[in-house]
């Protein structure tokens, strides 16, 4: 089997770089086998400035002027200052890099909302990666307490998606 030319490899790498930019990815790695002793390993990554990642959560409930028993649950539901959602025991993290979709198609109802009860295996959202729609199932049964991503937003591997308790 003839070895591919260097020009073919350069064109392939350029195509990967374009794919990286078009899909707003930070890294892409591919192994291309040409034969038994002939392969090409490529890793294309984009340098990004270390900006703090933003998480979207529902606004905390406003407390009534009179401090009563009704305001205690609202205060308990509000996240603590400086709390890292990824360290929460009920955090559902992203298994891949991609674009998050909270609904099956534009205009359709969201798969889940804050307060919904879910069973293990229920679809929580979709992550699109390399033109493939990946349904993300609930890892356990519980109640959705917080949704930390925005529909159509980018997500990194291991980033917290939502909290299920």
Automatic annotation (TrEMBL):
Keywords: Biotin, Fatty acid biosynthesis, Fatty acid metabolism, Ligase, Lipid biosynthesis, Lipid metabolism. InterPro entries: AcCoA_biotinCC (IPR001249), Biotin_BS (IPR001882), Biotin_Carboxyl_Carrier/Decarb (IPR050709), Biotin_lipoyl (IPR000089), Single_hybrid_motif (IPR011053). SUPFAM superfamilies: Single hybrid motif. Pathway: Lipid metabolism; fatty acid biosynthesis. Residues 51-94 are annotated as: Disordered. Residues 51-82 have a biased composition (Low complexity). PROSITE patterns: BIOTIN (PS00188), BIOTINYL_LIPOYL (PS50968). Residues 89-165 form the Lipoyl-binding domain. Coiled coil: none annotated. One of its GO terms (molecular function) is acetyl-CoA carboxylase activity. This protein is a component of the acetyl coenzyme A carboxylase complex; first, biotin carboxylase catalyzes the carboxylation of the carrier protein and then the transcarboxylase transfers the carboxyl group to form malonyl-CoA. This is Biotin carboxyl carrier protein of acetyl-CoA carboxylase. It comes from Roseovarius aquimarinus. The gene is accB.
């Amino acid at each position: 089997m003839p070895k591919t030319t260097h020009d073919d490899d350069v064109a392939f790498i350029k195509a990967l770089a374009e794919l990286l930019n078009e899909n707003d990815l930070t890294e892409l790695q591919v192994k291309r086998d040409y034969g038994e002793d002939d392969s090409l390993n490529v890793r294309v990554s984009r340098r990004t400035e270390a900006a703090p990642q933003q998480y979207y959560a529902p606004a905390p409930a406003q407390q009534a002027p009179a401090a009563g028993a009704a305001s205690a649950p609202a205060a308990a539901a509000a996240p603590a200052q400086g709390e890292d959602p990824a360290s929460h025991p009920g955090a559902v993290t992203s298994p891949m890099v991609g674009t998050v979709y909270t609904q099956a198609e534009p205009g359709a109802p969201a798969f889940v909302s804050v307060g919904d009860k879910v069973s293990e295996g229920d679809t929580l959202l979709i992550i699109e990666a390399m033109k493939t729609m990946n349904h993300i199932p609930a890892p356990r049964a519980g109640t959705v307490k917080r949704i930390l991503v925005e529909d159509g937003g980018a997500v990194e591997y291991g980033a917290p998606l939502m909290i299920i308790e």
